[in-house]
Design brief:
Length: 588
């Protein structure tokens, strides 16, 4: 008697014929299906024992599960839910189909806090050290291996997938993001960007040069091990004050280099999710957006409708110091459900500020100067953008750059109503208030008034060409560097040419220090109507350098020699020239 038939029994009662719903998929098994489950199991065990090839390549329902897992990784935050886009996606912890098997290994079903490093491969042997396990926790001893340099192509691919998934499902909450943060390529890309941004040391006094001397790969490997094991704890930020317009000081919080790398890695992972939600009215600290885009939006709005003559120039009082941390985390939680990521953000918010040797902690605000702070600021004010776009866009055009924003309206009544609405949203929902002295309503009709926004002064000017040719009065919104911007660049040029540099023997050394200042300042303002102001700065720089040359010559100055030191003289020595660099935004 065949072994397979030995396990069969005659049914006690007449069975209903099996329909298609009882048939096993061909992908699950290629053998003949027997009439009973016991016979099927017995025959399958016998055929597997007799066929060593099938023993190395398991089939059945488990194999079908692994095949499906290789196609769709249910642990991937960017993967679509199998039950449809409209339903919530919550992977089942104990289901074999829900285990992370995209890396070619079977994760043990024993519930642990971290994915066990002793998981077995598809042949039930332990996964070797050479396996690629991105996005998962690896073996304990792998953290001791230094992280090697890698390009950002895979990081950008991850960001595109996250952005696309968030765009497809606006209500989706992402649950598996933390293990992406300590991926080798993500940490290395974060280090490259932190190093490019430079910056000072934090409270631990560890600089970028110190890390490079000790070894970047080893440093990142230790940081990965801390994140992977859940031992990472941020340090307090160091308080630093920088001057601002009006003679006041702006407080900054400088995190340690270690914390800046983790913040940058976190930003690389979560920023694409929120970028899918941010609206076009937000321009500050966003990829492929700039202050020039915000200024151009205002110029085109005023040109298109020949309106926009009434502007609400708004300023939030102490924005970064008054952000409600609990509300901010609630807003983040609408898109991210990964508790470990939320814990990271909470730790940074509550790390505190070290000033005069003491650490001060607060339940409100986020320190300026952190890598993650601009993203959190945009998330918090995104509520304002949504409310305005949905319900009050008919009043005017909102243009926001971080906490600085304006609303351009066509009538004085609409401008007044816009101020009332925005004040209600900020005070009622976000716990913020408009600055009573810096918030004002401006009338631009026929160039009556102007306002400062993002370092530029915006005001309507009559077109001289249309007046000369057609005797037609038409006003266009123009912009040029504000008084404070002009004052700052003059002050910087003065600092680089004062008596502290009298020891310099060659004026070309001063020119090499001045050029980066002029070039950076000019690149920012060159897309406006800044020709006159550029010429003024060129003149001021020439006068400062000429005075330096006169002082250097002293008694040895010949008659008429100072007249030779004109603009062309310094331009021939390499001085950057601002005049003639104004371009339209499309050609800049």
């Amino acid at each position: 008697m065949p072994v397979a038939e030995a396990g069969r029994r005659e049914p006690l009662r007449r069975e209903q014929p099996r329909g298609s719903q009882h048939e096993v998929n061909a992908a699950a098994s290629t053998e003949k299906q027997w009439g009973s489950r016991a016979g099927h199991v017995t025959a399958k065990a016998t055929s597997t024992a007799l066929d060593p090839k099938r023993a190395a390549d398991p089939s059945g329902v488990g194999a079908a599960t692994r095949v499906e897992g290789s196609v769709r990784n249910t642990g991937d935050p960017s993967a679509l839910p199998g039950s449809g886009q409209g339903e919530p996606y919550k992977p089942m912890v104990k289901s074999a189909a829900a285990q992370r098997e995209s890396e070619g290994s079977i994760v043990p079903l024993i519930p642990v806090e971290q994915n066990a490093g002793g998981g077995k491969g598809p042949h039930f042997d332990h996964v070797g050290d050479g396996a690629t396990r991105e996005g998962m926790a690896g073996h304990e001893d792998r953290s001791n291996h230094p992280i090697t340099p890698s390009g950002d192509a895979k990081v950008r691919h991850l960001q595109r997938r996250l952005w696309a998934a968030a765009k497809r499902s606006p209500e989706r909450r992402f649950h598996a993001l933390y293990d992406r943060i300590y991926r080798d390529d993500v940490l290395w890309t974060a280090w490259e960007r932190v190093r490019a941004n430079r910056g000072a040391a934090g409270v631990d006094k560890q600089t970028l040069a110190d890390i490079e001397q000790l070894g970047v790969g080893e440093f990142l490997a230790d940081l990965k091990a801390e994140l992977q094991a859940g031992r990472y704890r941020p340090s307090a930020v160091r308080r630093q004050y920088i001057p601002k317009s009006g003679g006041k000081l702006r407080p900054l919080g400088i995190p340690t280099v270690r914390d800046r790398i983790v913040q940058m890695a976190t930003k690389l992972v979560i920023e694409p999710i929120f970028e899918a939600d941010f609206l076009p009215c937000s321009h500050g600290f966003r990829p492929r957006r700039s202050a020039t885009d915000a200024l151009e939006t205002l110029r085109k709005r005023a040109y298109r409708d020949q309106g926009g003559n009434f502007v609400l120039d708004a300023d939030i009082k102490g924005y970064f110091d008054n952000i409600d941390q609990s509300k901010l985390l609630d807003l983040v939680g609408k898109r991210i459900s990964d508790r470990r990521v939320l814990k990271l953000l909470r730790q940074w918010l509550q790390a505190g500020v070290m000033e005069d040797g003491e650490v001060h902690r607060s339940t409100a605000g986020t320190p300026q100067g952190g890598v993650i702070s601009p993203l959190l600021a945009n998330i918090y004010l995104h509520y304002l953008d949504v409310q305005w776009t949905r319900e009050y866009a008919h009043l005017g055009t909102l243009v926001r750059y971080a906490d600085d924003f304006v609303v351009m309206c066509d009538t004085a009544k609409a401008c007044e109503e816009a101020e009332r609405v925005i004040r209600g949203i900020l005070e009622g929902e976000l716990g913020l208030e408009l600055h009573p002295e810096k918030t004002r309503r401006v009338e631009l009709t026929e160039g009556k008034e102007g306002f400062d926004f993002l370092g530029c002064h915006l005001q309507k000017r009559m077109s001289g060409r249309l007046w000369e040719k057609y005797r037609r009065r038409r006003y266009y919104l123009q912009r040029w560097p504000s008084r404070s911007a002009m004052k700052q660049v003059r002050q910087r040029v003065h600092e680089l040419t004062d008596r502290r540099w009298n020891w310099v023997k060659d004026v070309r050394e001063l020119i090499s220090r001045i050029n980066p200042v002029l070039r950076g300042w000019g690149n920012y303002f060159r897309t406006g109507n800044a020709a006159i102001r550029f010429n003024q700065i060129d003149t001021y720089t020439h006068e400062r350098l000429r005075r330096f040359m006169v002082k250097r010559k002293g008694r040895n100055l010949r008659a008429g020699e100072s007249g030779e030191w004109n603009r062309e003289f310094f331009w021939n020595l390499g001085l950057h020239r601002l005049r003639g660099t104004v371009q339209y935004p499309g050609g800049a």
